[in-house]
Amino acid sequence: MLSTVHVVDDDASFQTAIRRRLELAGYAVQVYSSAEQFLDQQPPDNQSGCLLLDVQLPGLSGLALQSRLREAGSKLPIVFISGRAEIPTTVSAIKAGAEDFLIKPVASGDLLPAIERAIARQDALQKNQSELDL
């Protein structure tokens, strides 16, 4: 099954570039321009994939979306991306369960392993949950 990377970022040029990069790496890609758009079209929790989430978005911020998803019980792993390295924001995201926090422009050598780790962790958790449900 093809894993899907859900990209939430309001920068159209970044969306285009990241979509190409991820599709070349073998992922299905869904792009959203806002956290609200992602919430409106939120994928099922059992879908293999992860969320590549910009910290600074118009309207609902990336950290606020992370909080909402966590409160709703979502198991979709999050890899944050940001144009600025702000230590308090990074710490908050990681403490709240983010898989990783990357700074734009992000090199494929950093991005792809972060996504692979996030998806592998999600797949392992789903497998363990399935075994417990038996």
Characterization of the model:
The chain is built from 5 helices and 5 strands; from the N terminus they run E-H-E-H-E-H-E-H-E-H. The chain has 134 residues and is α/β, with parallel strands linked by helices. The longest helix has 26 residues, at 108-133. The model has no long low-confidence stretch (mean pLDDT 92).
Write a brief caption for the model:
The chain is built from 5 helices and 5 strands; from the N terminus they run βαβαβαβαβα. It has 134 residues and is α/β, with parallel strands linked by helices.
User: Order of strands across the widest beta sheet?
Assistant: 2-1-3-4-5
Tally of DSSP β-strands: 5
Count of discrete alpha- or pi-helical segments spanning 4 or more residues: 5
User: What percent of residues adopt helix (DSSP H or I)?
Assistant: 40-55%
Query: Over all CA atoms, what is the radius of gyration?
Result: 14 Å
Main sheet record: 5 strands, parallel
The overall pLDDT average reads: 92
* C-alpha geometry: globular
Quaternary: single chain
Class derived from helix and strand content: alpha/beta
How much beta, percentage-wise? 15-25%
The SSE string, one letter per element, is: EHEHEHEHEH
Detail the poorly predicted runs: none
Q: Give the termini separation.
A: 22 Å
